[in-house]
Amino acid sequence: MKDFAELFTRVDQTTRTSRKVAALTAFFQSASDADKLWCIALFSGRRPRRVITATVLREWAAEQAGIPLWLFEEAYPVVGDLAETISLVLPPPSREEDRPLSDWIAHLRTLSAQDDAARKVGILAAWDVLPDIERFLFTKLLTGGFRVGVSQKLMTRALAQATGIDEAELTHRLMGDWTPDTVTWTSLIEAPDPTAALSRPYPFYLAYQLEKTEEIEPVSDWFAERKWDGIRGQLIVREGEHHLWSRGEELMTDRFPEFATLKDFLPDGTVIDGEVLAFADDAPLPFAALQKRIGRKTVPRKLLSEAPAILMAYDLLEQDGTDIRAQPFDVRRAALARIIGSLPDGLPLRLSPEVVARDLEGLTAERALSRDLGAEGLMLKRRSAPYLAGRKKGDWWKWKVDPLTIDAVMIYAQAGHGRRANLFTDFTFAVRDGDDLVPFTKAYSGLTDAEFRQITAWVRKNTLQRFGPVRQVRPEHVFEIAFEGIQSSTRHKSGVALRFPRMARWRQDKPVAEANTLRDLHEMLTQYGS
Amino acid sequence: MARDPVLTFTEEGIYCPAGDFHIDPWRPVPRALITHGHSDHARPGMGRYLATRAAAPVIRHRLGDVALKTIEYGETRRIGGATVSYHPAGHVPGSAQIRVEVGGEVWVVSGDYKTVDDGLSEPFEPVPCHAFITECTFGLPVFKWTAPDILAAQINDWWAANAAQGRISILGAYALGKAQRLLRLLETGIGPVFTHGAIENTNEVLRAQGITLPDTTRVTADFDRKAHPGALILATPSGLSGPWAAKFGPDRSTAFASGWMALRGVRRRRAADRGFIVSDHADWEGLNSAIRATGAERVFVTHGYTSVFRRWLEEQGLEAHIVSTEYEGESLETAEDAA
Ligand SMILES: [Zn+2]
Ligand SMILES: [Zn+2]
């Protein structure tokens, strides 16, 4: 596993894309087929199942390190990662063994079939021959938490460089629900079997936020529609079967059983890009309604009637079994409209309506209606553009409405995880209520590194009390919190829950007395809430 | 009447009532005994200073013309009712633990220390005592330093690989101690070594007092990176990440040398290409072995993971206390000279 550990280190430590790709390419040029396949699997989120619970693992590690469990627990939040804490506290290996990555994965998968006593023997033996990063990686794989700072896009680019196969073609080959058990390096990468790919989705085309409105002029070159606030999905109907994929390449078919009827009406070889929405009485329900369905593998009848789902169709990617992504948007959209127009009423599939505007002013006015219509903003698509893969600038733009904001007081701080383990980055914010401060949200992101360093130094000097890893701090600093939505919540003392809260600005100019109040928050709930 | 303790902890710093002096005080006092020249230990504004002969040049360089007297390691001196002596702390050249004895009771202030021999500083010597005042910057069992020979190989391999590609290597380290210690690990056959001004100033002071360091050249404004493709640049932590580093070309490789590099999260956060795990403070094992070696029954912990470390020491059967001080440990984010 030395070569994989070396790859991980090089990729993990540099921020430069070119060096990450170079490290991956080097690995793909030298590793065995089995290791290459596992590397692709791991870097595309296909992790082996968790072998053992974190609780047991930390007990074994503490025991092996000769330290009390409480001391391990104290070190864990400082390190910010369980597998790393384990690999650091353990004594150095008594001897080193360099077995290939795929070997170690096979080892840990045999462990999962064994009882606890045998697992312990197998795990301690592995720890005792693995140094540093290798030990860390093995433990990561044991806990089922392997993640790495490389996008699938970069991995695919490196794979293209190492194999000479076109990057877009590889992107497509890597999609779908394969695992290293169902494919081989040859069948996945070098000589893919066309019939194995019936459920395989196309890579999603993603848009950037529009920064300058000049980009979308003349307006007549652009097609506008609502940016619906649901789950982006791809519906595939091939050979009488249907599959629904999320943007995160997760198969959601069973979560939305209502779409099963579509396979009886849509022609074979149809692939539609759209938004899954909870929808009733001709209008989308708030995202909260859909949220109830996201976490469940099967859906109780009651939820099906309370939050019925539809697919709001944006685009057609495959028609009669032919990939039509290279055709202009206008052509694809017309074909999509024809297909949907020929369907009977009452099916859970709708055509996302075009937003017609003569000029930029008209579009701006339409965008302002978004929140009232339950949309996040507008989507703008160049009428002549093909359907690309991944996030690209130029032909598609999302033009979201400005977020809601509220000025809040920071009252608790906690150190971050992973690369932010040394900084305070997780904060709890409160609004004023008379002389009290009522906590209402947490936020983690939005500040610059320099600001995080500055606030960290301040937190260290202004801690009032500690509760484990959480510090109560002097209520002195006001932050502008931006968020996308607000809903009532009985789980929170404030009575509200926010969607996508983040720190928009550190209002060093504002005293606490000028922060917003609980009443302001409840007014927002009445106006925008659900 | 109850006797005063040998040392007490006051607003100004650690104080000895019997001798009427302070050790590493952070507020102006008439008489200051200084463990070493880092800025969180040797501060301006004291009436008189006492430090080891080897620590004195750096203190003079940093604080100017102050009333500084020197003492040899192991030499005893009577100050009021106290007997004082300085013993090697292994932290930076000239750094000392200060032993204070009053009426047969011995307390030791360790200042900053490490137990591993860095090949530059006078190696740490355990001093038997009744009470030991220690820092615990790295007082968690996740901190274990890389062995010196492996560390040297890691750094030289990284440098050589960069040099082979015509890439400049920039290594970030504190100006006093860490930088010179790393300098002595470098295989100078790989390429020329350049230094940030703050490091070169310290080098000059140390060379003048007889410490041998490899040849280095100060980086000047007109540095021509094309002329030195395989060079290694020794930089201060802030120089490493600041605009200063830009002159070494977009293809430069950066590395940072610190005990904090033991943590992957911190390594990633520094956004350097490499992190070398090396510190002038003691690691977990170093702290524990140093404390054991003193035979002390009472331990005072000053800075670092104090509450965790105190609990650990209590479970080892020691009487442990936390005292709050203004020492900074090995900081990643603040004044780079404090350590
Ligand atoms: Zn120091
Ligand atoms: Zn210090």
CATH architecture of the largest domain in chain B: 4-Layer Sandwich
| Mass-distribution shape of chain B | globular
> How much β-strand is present in the residues of chain B?
15-25%
Output the strand order for the largest sheet of chain B.
Answer: 7-8-9-10-11-18-19
Number of helices of chain A: 19
The pLDDT mean of chain B sits at 92
Attached small molecules: zinc ion
CATH superfamily membership of the largest domain in chain B? Ribonuclease Z/Hydroxyacylglutathione hydrolase-like
Annotation field: number of helices of chain B: 8
Q: How would the global form of chain A be characterised?
A: globular
Question: Can you tell me the CATH class of the largest domain in chain A?
Answer: Alpha Beta
* Quantity of strands of chain B, as a count: 19
| The CATH architecture of the largest domain in chain A | 2-Layer Sandwich
Tally of extended strands of chain A?
20
Keywords:
heterodimer; A: 530 residues; alpha+beta; DNA ligase i, domain 1; D-amino Acid Aminotransferase, Chain A, domain 1; OB fold (Dihydrolipoamide Acetyltransferase, E2P); seven-stranded mixed sheet; seven-stranded antiparallel sheet; 19 helices; 20 strands; B: 339 residues; alpha/beta; Metallo-beta-lactamase, Chain A; Rossmann fold; 2 domains; 19 strands; globular; binds zinc ion
Describe this structure in words.
- The complex is a heterodimer of chains A (530) and B (339).
- The mean pLDDT of chain A is 89.
- In chain A, the strands form four sheets. In chain A, strands 3, 4, 5, 6, 7, 8 and 9 form a seven-stranded mixed β-sheet that branches. In chain A, strands 12, 13, 14, 15, 16, 17 and 20 form a seven-stranded antiparallel β-sheet that branches.
- The longest helix of chain A is centred in the first third of the chain and has 14 residues, at 17-30.
- Chain A folds into three domains: 2-143, DNA ligase, ATP-dependent, N-terminal domain (DNA ligase i, domain 1, Orthogonal Bundle); 205-400, 2-Layer Sandwich (D-amino Acid Aminotransferase, Chain A, domain 1), CATH 3.30.470; 404-528, Beta Barrel (OB fold (Dihydrolipoamide Acetyltransferase, E2P)), CATH 2.40.50.
- Chain A has helices at 2-13, 17-30, 33-43, 54-65, 69-79, 82-89, 101-111, 116-127, 132-142, 152-163, 167-173, 185-190, 287-294, 301-306, 329-341, 360-368, 370-373, 449-461, 518-528, and strands at residues 205-209, 222-228, 231-238, 241-246, 270-280, 283-284, 309-319, 322-323, 349-351, 375-382, 390-400, 404-415, 424-433, 436-443, 463-467, 470-473, 478-483, 485-488, 496-499, 502-507.
- In chain A, helix 4 runs parallel beside helix 6.
- Chain A starts with a helix and ends with a helix.
- Chain A is 36% helix and 25% strand.
- In chain A, a hairpin with a 7-residue loop joins strand 10 and strand 11 (390-400).
- Chain A has 530 residues and is α+β, with helices and mostly antiparallel strands.
- Chain B has two domains: 8-142 and 280-322, Metallo-beta-lactamase, Chain A; 148-276, 3-Layer(aba) Sandwich (Rossmann fold).
- Chain B is an alpha/beta fold and 339 residues long.
- The model of chain B has no long low-confidence stretch (mean pLDDT 92).
- In chain B, strand 16 (253-257), helix 6 and strand 17 (274-276) form a beta-alpha-beta unit.
- Chain B is built from eight helices and 19 strands.
- Chain B is globular and about 70 Å long.
- In chain B, 53% of the residues are buried.
- Chain B has helices at 56-63, 148-164, 178-183, 197-208, 237-241, 264-270, 284-294, 306-315; strands at 8-9, 14-16, 21-23, 31-33, 48-52, 68-71, 76-79, 82-88, 96-102, 105-109, 131-136, 169-172, 193-195, 217-218, 232-235, 253-257, 274-276, 298-304, 319-322.
- In chain B, the strands form three sheets. In chain B, strands 7-8-9-10-11-18-19 form a seven-stranded mixed β-sheet, with helices on one face. In chain B, strands 1-2-3-4-5-6 form a six-stranded mixed β-sheet, with no helix packed on it. A six-stranded parallel β-sheet of chain B has the order 14-13-15-12-16-17.
- The A-B interface holds A 12-15, 19, 65, 67-68, 70-72, 74-75, 78-81, 84-85, 88-89, 136, 149, 416-423, 449, 453, 456-457 and B 140-144, 260, 262-269, 271-275, 305, 308, 311-312, 315, 332-334.
- One zinc ion binds at residues 38, 40-41, 112, 327-329, 339 of chain B.
